[in-house]
Amino acid sequence: MEQTPLVAQQRTILGKKVKNIRAEGFVPAHVFGHKVKTTHVQVKATDFHKVFEKVGETGIIALSIGDQKKPVLVKDTQVHPATDDLLHIDFYQVNLSEKVRVNVPLEITDEAPAVEKKIGLLLTPVSEVEVEALPADLPENIEVDVSNLSEIGDEIKVKDMKVDRSKVTVITDEELVVAQIGELVTKEMEAVEAEIEAEQAEAQAEAAAEGAAPAEGAEAEKKAEGEAATTEGTENVTTESTEEKKENIDKNQ
């Protein structure tokens, strides 16, 4: 396997002060491995992004540190949760004559007839599998051909994948399903949708009831006010008529 070159510089700045390194366009990192003394380094961020885009976590990097070149894999990367800026890199130094275990990504190829004919959905519950191999024999990815998945329930397991098993040992459970055709709408989903519709209908009914009650109350209050006004007017008329009668009687006397 071709080794992709990447230049690193040994660093003495550790701890919280590494933010100064990042401010200058570098990423702090360290190199470790089996029977390997940990080395603290820094790499230029732009250079690393280009290399990592090419090799991922399974390609070998020829990491130059001064006059030394070390074959390494990218073991892990840490990114800022808010900005996605690269914060730290873990390089694992490998012995080219010793096997290593890594997770290899799966790549879905072709199109499932069941999906094309809208019979079912393609489900991919697994995105990578663990393998063991010599560093030079590590595959960049493992292709999963779904062109034979034509009916609901059709599936591909780890044991069905095309891997050069003379060089690569698959550690992941061979019976694990990596691709499967599921129903367009499952019974569970239908039940959930029915429950959601029932809850929405109940909410609308409650909202309608709450809106009607104040309206009826306001109408009743308005009617009561009108009746009170009519009664008050009648009382005033009656009072005025009585007073007039009294005045007439007084005049006549």
TrEMBL record:
Encoding gene per record: rplY
A biological-process GO annotation: translation
Domain Large ribosomal subunit protein bL25 beta, chain residue ranges per copy: 99-181
UniProt entry tagged with the keyword Chloroplast: no
Transmembrane segments: none
Molecular function in Gene Ontology: 5S rRNA binding; structural constituent of ribosome
Renumbered residue ranges of the record's region Disordered: 198-253
Function: This is one of the proteins that binds to the 5S RNA in the ribosome where it forms part of the central protuberance.
Source organism per UniProt: Candidatus Curtissbacteria bacterium GW2011_GWA1_40_9
GO terms under cellular component: cytosolic large ribosomal subunit
Compositional bias per record (Low complexity), positions renumbered to this chain: 201-217, 227-240
Subunit structure as annotated in this protein's UniProt entry: Part of the 50S ribosomal subunit; part of the 5S rRNA/L5/L18/L25 subcomplex. Contacts the 5S rRNA. Binds to the 5S rRNA independently of L5 and L18.
InterPro entries, alphabetized: Rbsml_bL25/Gln-tRNA_synth_N, Ribosomal_bL25/Gln-tRNA_synth, Ribosomal_bL25_b-dom, Ribosomal_bL25_C, Ribosomal_bL25_long, Ribosomal_L25_dom, Ribosomal_uL5_bac-type
Residues of the Large ribosomal subunit protein bL25 L25 domain: 6-91
Coiled-coil intervals: none
Keywords, sorted A to Z: Ribonucleoprotein, Ribosomal protein, RNA-binding, rRNA-binding
Presence of the UniProt keyword Chaperone in the record: no
Basic and acidic residues composition bias: residue spans: 242-253
Lineage: Bacteria, Candidatus Curtissiibacteriota
Designated name of the protein: Large ribosomal subunit protein bL25
CDD domains in the cross-refs: Ribosomal_L25_TL5_CTC (cd00495)
Protein family membership: Belongs to the bacterial ribosomal protein bL25 family. CTC subfamily.
The organism's place on the tree of life at top rank: Bacteria
